[in-house]
Amino acid sequence: MWYGFRVKVLPRTKFGNPILRAKAEKVPLSELKTKYFKNLIERMFYTMKQAHGIGLAAPQISKSIQLFVAQISPTKLRPNLKPLPKTIAINPKIIQQSKEMEEDWEGCLSCPTIRGKVPRHKKITVVYYDEFGEKQTVRLEGLQARLFQHEIDHLNGNVYVDRMKDMKSLMTLSEFEERILKKRKK
Ligand code: ZN
């Protein structure tokens, strides 16, 4: 994707930064049309892609506002991933969640060198506003549901390690790539 010369990678906050532990402020929908906001979204996508992430929440780039961007594309190692088109979620809220939980691996651009197994609700329904201020209601499962739960956690001052049941699954990225990523088929 060509972004032109204007777009620059935003510096990312890392685990330990208090902004990742704060509850983010709601975004006034009147701000969505501003140049500032459009530029912010564009830079967040660019920053996420440069870091090979699938989601990035505003507190991760030092903005304590309720906004995240996300996009899932199938990869060579995971060709069967259900794609998620470019998504901009503003003031998102989980309004329904399945009792059934599912455990799977997660990482975070605020601590990119580790991975851990995190239980999440298998299915969720989320309400959010898109970049045009339109209200969206989506039912999600699998990785998409996991991703939304991870990002919404960021907006509430939580990170995925808070949700881990067993810290023994924590791995460095290189061990994860060697032991898990190469062997998974999903
Ligand atoms: Zn994260």
UniProtKB/TrEMBL annotation:
Cofactor-binding details, from the entry: Binds 1 Fe(2+) ion.
Residues bound to Fe cation: C108, H150, H154
The enzyme's E.C. designation: 3.5.1.88
GO molecular function terms noted in the UniProt entry: metal ion binding; peptide deformylase activity
Protein purpose: Removes the formyl group from the N-terminal Met of newly synthesized proteins. Requires at least a dipeptide for an efficient rate of reaction. N-terminal L-methionine is a prerequisite for activity but the enzyme has broad specificity at other positions.
Gene3D superfamilies referenced in this protein's UniProt entry, alphabetically: Peptide deformylase
Family from the record: Belongs to the polypeptide deformylase family.
Active site residues of this protein: E151
Record SUPFAM superfamilies: Peptide deformylase
GO biological process: translation
NCBIfam families, A to Z: pept_deformyl, PRK00150.1-3
Superkingdom of origin: Bacteria
Recorded catalytic activity of this chain's protein: N-terminal N-formyl-L-methionyl-[peptide] + H2O = N-terminal L-methionyl-[peptide] + formate
Any Pfam family the entry gives: Pep_deformylase
Keyword terms of this UniProt record: Hydrolase, Iron, Metal-binding, Protein biosynthesis
Protein name: Peptide deformylase
Obligatory cofactor(s): Fe(2+)
Keyword Iron in annotation: yes
